[in-house]
Amino acid sequence: MENWENKHIVFFDGDCGVCNFWVQWILERDKKDKFMFASLQSDFGQEFLSERGLETTEFNTMYLWKPKQYYLIKSRAVLQIASLLGGIYKVSAIGKLMPSFLSDKMYDIISRNRMKLANQKCYLPDQHQKKKFIQV
Length: 136
What we know:
The protein is α/β, with parallel strands linked by helices. It has six helices and five strands; from the N terminus they run E-H-E-H-E-E-H-H-H-H-E.
């Protein structure tokens, strides 16, 4: 493992405008430098999925991985990211009280429609932010 061993790694669909918007949103709020990023399509992302027996051709799920500890999917990943960002976003932890099957149902509805929700755009990170990407 490299310099991201103690980070939380967000795996996202690199071809999705909504996903890229949220990666940018996290980057701008990650004041404590807790996150790294990798697209699911990258070799690193594919290896992560394969090692866990997860789907390697559908990229409609966000994953949050804390190496050697855990990984979360869908709504649980989103809620944990917000909690880790802290501040006002920590309030979202109340969403953890909702059963996963319900919050994941809402996540799936958004995921199915994500290509309609945002145009495809290329996000260009600044020099500091580039260091936070493992592979895209």
